[in-house]
Amino acid sequence: MAVFEKAWLNYRVLKELEGCRNDIKVIFSDVKGKCIDNAINELKLAVTDIIGGDEPGICTCVRIVSELSDGIYLKLYNDDDKELNDGFEPGEEGYAVYYDADNRLTVIAADNDRGILYGVFAFIRNLRKGMLPSDIRLTEKPDITFRMLDHWDNMYGDIERGYSGNSFFYDNYRIIIDDRTEFYARMMASIGINAIAINNVNVHQEETLLITDKYLNEVKRINDIFASYGIKLYLSVNYAAPVEMVELEVSDPLDEGVIEWWKKASAHLYDVIPDFGGYLVKADSEGRPGPFTYGRTHADGANMLARTIAQYGGNVIWRCFVYNCRQDWRDRKTDRARAAYDHFIGLDGEFDDNVVLQIKNGPVDFQPREPVSPLFGGLKKTNMFLEVQIAQEYTGQQRHVCYLVPMWKEILDFNTYASDKGTVKEIVSGEAYGNRLCGIAGVTNTGNDINWTGHDLAGANLYGYGRMCFDTALSAEEIAREWITQEFGTDKFINDTVYDIIGNSWLTYEKYTPPLGVGWMVNPSNHYGPNVDGYEYDRWGTYHFADCKGVGVDRTVATGTGYASQYNKPWSDRYEKPETTPDELLLFFHHMDYDYVLDSGKTIIQHIYDTHFEGVEEVERMIDKWKKLEGKINPVIYERTLDRLNEQLESAKEWRDRINTYFYRKSGTEDKKGRTIY
Ligand code: GCW
Description:
alpha/beta, Chitobiase, domain 2, TIM Barrel, Alpha-d-glucuronidase, C-terminal Domain, 3 domains, eight-stranded parallel barrel, six-stranded mixed β-sheet, 20 helices, globular, binds 4-O-methyl-beta-D-glucopyranuronic acid
């Protein structure tokens, strides 16, 4: 038995629901499908563990409606439901929940078993806010079709950029399937996740074999657990798999032998797992093989794979994280930020229908602040996924509190001006171009730590990611407060206090780390902690170019790398000039003198000093607030989180001092407020 906590599914009896303790006697269901048993079990738990009633009876035979009473009724959505719910159509994954007072029945109606399962979780979510079943009325359906999680788990058992222990899928090249696998599927379904890739996009030797008989039966077992929670399983594949397995000498996508190899491999895979989701591919990136090796395009590469799984309904998710990682810091024209757009824009319209391009939110790499990738506003005839990183690689590695939903919301709301439906949200929800295959993928922050996410407060990012994808209209605050209620209960003081700590934590993190969008300044390799010149004289294309006069990367058309021109107007014009570039991105787009005055009225150098002092003070205040929760929340969570907050404070001071000293020495400028900066 694996040892783990139940995170936000930690059900407990609510006194607010005392009055309806005896109301739910039977759960009726006449819906069929893989998810129904799980939906019913979840409701049983809700009745006993949240409402505090006796275990309800279960009735899954078809009953005449007039015989139903005192319970919950799971049913297929029909015209009567439609009439009762103002014409609402649930579609593939939506649901209606309402109370039928005549029969004392809560009705959960959907078009299929997945919709029912989501309806059940939504009903429970509202119960846990203290709402009586008779008051819960919902008509909801997801805004985003694909709501995916990417695991960067390796079969050895470690996780690339994992900050919550090791993998719970693998240990020493063995696949683990236990109660934790099941619980994980349940947790993810509860927040609406419907696709998961379970191995790292950097596919090493052993992982290449996941699609072969060596592991397929176990992969199928995981697939079936996920399927019973409405989740499609994906695997990352190595583009050079036929070569890695020493079966062919090339992996050229136009080579007949290669095409046949993949056809056979895919046919076998779908024979074993008919409802398998498809392949996720990182090609020609950071040392990974790909079509470039053979002078082919990424469309050649992706389409070849896609054609081997199209007939089974499979998809290829192809990442756009393709750039030259062997740059020279003295070359100020080559620009890593340009790379994704330069590589993919010319291929717009060339990808098959079951291929989707997965685009990182920014042009570089999950920095605390980046502009939105210009590919979203550029591609018009291509399926697109937005890729965000829930794992906090560059945002404190789950040792710092950094609630990322506000950042993701900003990205979704960004208007690319590609059309009159030009926001990233409209593009990845399919509203803009009606794409069949579009959505959001998040690199997950889970591991085998007892609490799943290392830092307890990092649970807000995982929970928030799923909820945001399902319902993009929710604000970052609504999502945070909802998570706090599910995790810590209905107490208002706890809710306000935890929200005060996490609500603005992304902006706090930004204050004490790289200034004004310039990025990096982290220790090479592990990417934790300050090292201002850590990547400055290296090959990765991640520079800030600070000298005695100024800092920042000139990405203008006039004098820089020309990156600003990859945007549609008016962004291309705005980013071209410092005066019209938003302060927070100024150094991403421009190399500026230290005495340049920002919109805020401060010089850049004074902004650097001030924000770094403020950032540390804000972390101090977070700790004071957290201490008010002592005795009010689970003591284990209290202590665990306090330890991490203390570490965050130490780390924030180190960031402050290193950055301030660095820029003081470079610029020779005193702090206007007279604080000591060495
Ligand atoms: O952010 C970088 C990480 C790599 C990662 C890569 C990617 C999986 O530092 O560890 O590799 O991005 O997204 O492919």
